[in-house]
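Can't paste images in this forum, so I'm doing it all in text. The chain is below; anyone willing to post the predicted structure tokens underneath?
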Amino acid sequence: MQQISSPTAPEPAGTYSSGIVSGGFLFLAGQGPFNTETEIVGESFADQVRQTFANLEAVAAAAGTSMTNAVRMGVYLNDLADWAEFNEVSKEFLTTPYPARTAVQADLNGFLVEVDAIVALPDDRS
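Text version of the structure:
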């Protein structure tokens, strides 16, 4: 196993890693709409989704992959009414075939979205 982090994504707020490489995959911890100073970025839902994906992408890049290689995502929404908008914004970051995904409503305590993911590594990185 190898721990992965990025200077352009927020540091973990607890006893977990931003990412772990194991068995040909990168396991990304949940990322939210925070900058490196742990301040919420974006007042709109779409802006918070974009920052969340920017954080996921930063950690994925540090591992030598990208979110276009995501095979599974967990999506946590403060309000499930935002599901359709999440789908639209996520198309800016994902390509087909889209990853398998689960979405749940969660009490996110002051922010609107969090996403975790499992991302395939390139063959030369596994």
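The mean pLDDT is 95. Helices lie at 45-62, 83-90.
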